[in-house]
Specification:
The chain is α+β, with helices and mostly antiparallel strands. 34% of the residues lie in helices and 27% in strands. It folds into 2 domains: 14-154, PurM-like, N-terminal domain (60s Ribosomal Protein L30, Chain: A), CATH 3.30.1330; 166-346, Phosphoribosyl-aminoimidazole Synthetase, Chain A, domain 2. It is built from 11 helices and 13 strands. The longest helix has 17 residues, at 104-120.
Amino acid sequence: MGRKVLPLIGKIGIEFFEQVIRSNLGARDESVMVGPMIGVDAAVIDLGDGRVMVVKTDPTFGLPVLLDYLGFAIVHIVASDVAVMGIPPRYMSICLLIPPGFDPDVLEKVWRQLSDEAKKLGIAIVGGHTGVYPGISYLLNGGATIIGIGDKKRLVTPMGAKPGDLILITKGAAIEAAAVLAIQYPEPIERAYGSDVLRKAQELIWDMTVVKDALIAAEVGGVTAMHDATEGGVYNAIWEIAHASGVGVRVYEEKIPVLPEVEAVCDLFKIDPMISISEGTLIATVRPDRAEDIMEAWRREGIESAIIGEVTKPKEGRVLIRKDGSKVELKPVPKDPFWEAYFRGVR
């Protein structure tokens, strides 16, 4: 067993997860269909009678500049990880941790937004905890849990990708990274690119959800695996699906969409959009005969998409084809560049 190392920020690494977390999961229960795994967004419990329960818990940081969007972000970030399993989110429990001296009017605004977004998605808030605690710098979602219950036949997991499937993407790379940086640091972006680019980048905050993307794909059918491109961005999401499914992939960099405003922000902050956090970007593997049907269903709802690669046999490896035609191995992203860029500016 190697030396245990934790990151300075962000999710714990694969080695620590495998050594410590995954090998210590409490009591065994035969009803657990899908438990903690690298590349898997949520747990799945078999309820019997052809029904499953999908469970997801996630924190959300509430830095002051993001408070106008925090309620939206809390609901959609957690609900997205349920929806990518093909099951509609239904119940929510949340733990809000409040710093001393926090403005109660701001807390009310955040809570009302959270409730409104939950209502739009058909999610009932059924419990949780809210309290003030010293040592907390910002309003923090200490952990929201969302549960979905549905037909077992609708279940999609990141372990389902098969050789021959096409790899689809919605919206494009680095949606979250560009939106958050634009909201946090508007002045340098406006100076460099103008107010129109700044506005478009900031408005991407409302695209930080894949609930609709995922549920549409599940409804159309033919989708074999789905994953939202959170930490590590597009490349990490594809690698995690490949890892969970035990397959190879061939991914074409030139086919991955990057919105002009995203490219501008990423260039300014010197981060690679392909490996930067991108809540709101769905990666889906799809049977070739259903790909156009899914993409057309997305188009009808105003969701742009593209085919960016294909799933291959394990022996063919995980290959990224660069824009210049060179081939490199697609590997897990050890460090998302967004965090350093964000906190470099804060400091």
